[in-house]
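Posting this for the archive.
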Amino acid sequence: MTEAGRVTLDLGETEARVSNLRAGGAAVALGSFGVTATSALYALSPAAAALPAQPFDQALALAGAVAGTRTMFAAGTVGIFSDLVMAVGALLVALELARRGRSLAVAGWIAILLSIVVFMFVDAIVGYVLGPVAALKDGAAAFTAFKRLFDVLFLLGTIAFGAGAMLALTNEMRSAVPIVSKPVALAGALTGMAGVLAAAACLAGFPLEQAVGISIGLGSAVFVAIGAQIMLRPQ
């Protein structure tokens, strides 16, 4: 290959890398914006049905699912599509960081990606299963099963997201060539830690479901800024 050909090839590879990172940042920002809106819709729904409430109260959860059918359907619909977009963004960012040899950050972004996959099921259940099943004449047993699955998936997804954010963003703060500013990375890491602690407490039976929901809402808002910074960062 001629020298000119090698230069052209190198430029093409550089453009591809820039495009992947910027596309990933854009998808993370857009998906996170949708998740923030989803969190607001969750907040407008009865907490006994739309959050992993502790202790579980079947009567309250059933009544909440029936009363909150519309907002829960909206939350699930917005959520599943936002999750898809954010998952693509997280994957693209992880691939770019892997190319740069930043294995700890890659591990964090993969944990974030896995949490988003979990939340796809969470949002599908809250939007398309809990309300309709709760409205069935003899649906109490099925509702309880789906609600308990929803609860554990919600908490598992929160822990995965929080742990991934802590790992990825702590690595960002230590990187010589970061893709996210230190103040924003610190905010994301702290929000992630709060989510992990609140979700772990809920798994242990403590009534901290509101803290879990708030951590997801705040975390997704921070990731709007994170995605925007990745997208707009000079390459």
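The chain has one domain: 3-232. Residues 3-232 form one domain.
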